Amino acid sequence: MESIKRKVFLLRPEPPKTGRATLKLSEQNGGVEVHLAVQGLPESGCALYLFEQNGKPYRAGDIAESHLAASMRFLKLEAVAGAAVVCERTNAFLFKSAGIDWQDTAARFRIARHVSQPPQNTVQDAPWPQAEIDGPCEETAAETEPARNDDEQAEPSLECMTCPHVIRQDKINPFPSVFPESEWVKISYPGPTGWWHYISGKIFSNKKLIAKVLGVPGEYGLAPPIWLEGFGSYMRCALPDASGYWLMFQDAQTGEILDMGLSQHDA
Q: Which fold has domain 7-100?
């Protein structure tokens, strides 16, 4: 009889925090059985994510009373390269395993969560994007902008994971010739190697909002990176901090992903 294949990960926090987590994975019925025990979990509302080597995340489940047991039938044990305990309110990585470039993985994870909540990349009437890319640090409460009316509502002001810096929001116009009736905001936040950013846009026709857009800077390719599923269009621009953006367009009413029929040479 074939022996059960297993993996064990020790998850450790960033200093100066304390605590640890032990993650045991075993191959069962073609999937993965998950058993996690955490010591020193600093807050509630945390979940365990398993990651492939390329940074693709898989949510294992919520952590309750510092424990988690779950079955992931769709995931192969050999595909799991690392794991992290994530505070889902702030997207902060509280505990991490070794073996992965976590700086790159964490940044991709935050952007991926932006476009995957709720399921099927739907959009609601709330200010967009819906999911917070970062949240308040443990030492500092989040600062928010003064209340505005609906016509003035902008992206929420958020604290980043490296307090006391605050995410910056700047109005821009990256594609004036392609979308003359549009509004765009560049959202910048401190990353592990400097400032990162993405763009959020609204497309109008005869003053009526018809589409919402999320854009991630990058280089043109035949297809978007695997972690940008749904970003089917690439457009060049003349901004100093990006040669172009991978864009995802969504119907303003239904949230359906739209094919705008754009070429990368349109901008």
A: Immunoglobulin-like (2.60.40)
